[in-house]
Every structure is written in C-alpha cells, then in structure tokens.
Amino acid sequence: MHFMPTALFVLLWSSGAIFSRWGLNHASPFVFLALRFTVALGLLALLGRGPRGWLPERGTRARVAGTGLLLVGGYSSAYFLAMDHGLTPGALATVLGVQPIATLVLQERRFPLGRLAGLLLALAGLALVVADSLRQASVSTAGVLWALVALACITTGAMAQKRIEQPPLRVLPLQCAVALLLSLALLPTQPLRFEPGPGLWVPVLWLGGVISVAATVLLYRMLRAGNLVNVTSLFYLVPGGTALLDWLVLGNRMAPHSLAGLALVVAGLLLVFRRRAAASGPA
Questions:
Q1: Which of 26, 29, 126, 246 has the greatest number of CB atoms lying within 10 Å of its CB?
Q2: What spatial distance separates the first Cα and last Cα of the chain, rounded to whole Å?
Q3: d(Cα 63, Cα 70) in Å, to the nearest integer?
C-alpha cells in the first residue's frame, strides 16, 4: 500500500469519533445516521455520471446491497447502539480490534505465527491507547452484544467488499441508499431527538461527506489493491489518530501510556506488514 493514501485514510477515519460524539449530543443515533447518509447520497449524486453511475453492474446489485447493509448500515447502527448502551468509544475500539485477527483466521488457513504475534502486539498497544476510556466504560450486556454485532458486520462486510471488483463510486450510492433505508426503518425504535444548529450540521456534513464518501472510497480502493488483513490492521491506528487530533485540535494531551501504546501499535503493524512482504516475495 502507498503511504500517502494510507496516512490520509487513517487521518480522516480518526476524525470520525470526534465528530460523531459532537453530533450525538444534538440528535438521537438514527436521526443522526439518516441525516449523514442523506448528505452522502447527495454528494454521490453530484459525483455520479448519469443513471449508470448510481447502480452497480447487472447481476451484482443484490450482493452489493447486502454488503452495504453489513459494512455501511449495519456497522454504523451497531456502533452507535453500543455507545448508546454505555460502551465508551475506547472500549468499543478494543472489541473491534479483534477484527484483523478474526479476518486472518477466517481468510488464511495457514499464516505465520509472527504475523499473528504482530496483530496481538498491536491489539495490546490499542488497549494501552484507550486505557483511560476502558477504565471509564460502563459495561452492559446490551452494549457488549451490540459491539459484537458491529465486529461481525465490519469483518464479514469487509470480506464481502474485497470480492467486489467494481470502482468504489459505482457501488457506494446503492450501499448508502440501503444504509439510509435501514436508519429510517430503525427511527421508531428510539425516542427522537433533533436539535438543529452548528453542533449538529457540522458533524453531519463532515461524516456524510468526508467519512461516508472520501474515507470510504479510500478504504474500498485499498481493499481492492491490498491484502485484507493488512488493510483492516490499519484500524488499530485510528484510536491513536483520534487521540492525536484531540491533542492538536482540542489541546487534550496524550497520557504517557497512550504514547507507549501507539508505539506498540506501530511496532505490531510493522511486523504484520514485514511478514506479509516476506511471504509474498520470491522463494
């Protein structure tokens, strides 16, 4: 994977937690998600080139829609429901940190132990990065269950998306439309809260345009071009990136153990990528 798209993806995706927390202070989860996916669809309509740009190739539309239901709609919904039931973003990030390991076990029947060690080292580093959030977490059965649903959605969804050999902008409109329909269908399940103002519209525009379109296009391109385990391993960097943005933008300094955890994440990922490069090199 090239460094610049990878770094840009981690930077953009890391900003999602900050804007999500901001927006959820002003709207209930499914109101927020419905607005987010409406913005994403509007932007994709501007980027599309006629009706063909809105639909995937014939014969693949059901599979693309099902993938979007998991990776876009299901993951986002379960993520917010886990937080709504008391899990902090840090605790949720730790649960989701199992994704690269689960992907490795499901995708590759034989894998070097050194590569697994790298993933476990990165997971340990992730736990250090989010240690403060873990200590504050109010663990509930419902919260853990929704976190596991989010883990299942992003793991199986990424595996399915890897097999879709179409440009991201060809599949994203249908997937965002499916996610929007899911959000609207789930609206009656929670009390509605809607407080219009900059505190809502700025996060909605950022998540709808930057995360749901720009960052997701980068993710899909990396999934098409790279190894699935390597790409999903980049999510280990997201909590650290969020903490760095929190430090640079809001002035909240990172604790020494968070910096140490970020170093462990980087060391673990270097081991993962080195093992993969060695495995794919000449015999």
A1: 126
A2: 21
A3: 11
Give the span between the Cα atoms of 240 and 228, in whole angstroms.
Answer: 21
Q: Which residue has the tokens 């902090």?
A: 88
Show the tokens assigned to 186. 């789930």
- For residue 196, give the 3-state DSSP assignment: coil
Q: pTM above 0.90? A: no
Sign of CA dihedral 263, 231, 274, 109: positive
Helix axes 75-84, 29-47, angle to 10 degrees: 150
Rounded to whole angstroms, the Cα distance separating 26 from 170 reads: 33
DSSP 41-93: HHHHHHH--SGGGGS--TT-HHHHHHHHIIIIIIHHHHHHHHHHTT--HHHHH
Cross-strand bridge partners of residue 66: none
Query: Do 211 and 13 form a contact (C-beta atoms < 8 A)?
Result: yes
- Nearest of 149, 27, 170 to residue 82 by alpha carbon: 149
Residue 251: both structure tokens together: 């002035």
Residue 254 pLDDT class (50, 70, 90 cuts): low
Summarised one tens digit per residue, pLDDT across range 165-214 is: 899 999 999 999 999 999 999 999 988 999 999 999 999 999 999 999 99
DSSP 234: G
CB 172 within 8 A of CB 62: no
CA-nearest of 217, 194, 213, 200 to 41 is 213
User: Residue 79 has which token pair?
Assistant: 């993520």
